[in-house]
Amino acid sequence: MKVSYLPKVTKFIESLSNDLVDKIVSLVDVLEEKNGLLNTLNSKSFGKGLFELRLVGSVNIRVFYCFHKDTIYLLHGIIKKTRKTPKREIEFARKIKKVVEQL
């Protein structure tokens, strides 16, 4: 299964430090190799086909993704600063997912 970075996600990842970029890219590579089957430490489902890729550490990064037509689409990325993922970020990712599903 291939991975497609939406431009907004590419921009977000490029804004991070080189160390974090390397970690995210490595995690995305694992996601691609395992066809989206990651453990709950690295991935979480929000239902209805929306997932988050989780980089946990001194900086907590989340990249929302979905599956569509044999492709994993990286939809939206955030630096998580609160205990729970903000609902507005989840809803924003859902809107992007709907657009991707119309492709």
From TrEMBL:
Q: Which InterPro entries match?
A: HigB-like, RelE/ParE_toxin_dom_sf
Check the record and name the SUPFAM superfamilies matching this protein: RelE-like
Q: Which domain of life is it from?
A: Bacteria
- Name of the protein this chain belongs to: Addiction module toxin RelE
Instruction: State the species of origin.
Output: Candidatus Zambryskibacteria bacterium RIFCSPLOWO2_01_FULL_39_39
Q: From which lineage does this chain's organism come?
A: Bacteria, Candidatus Zambryskiibacteriota
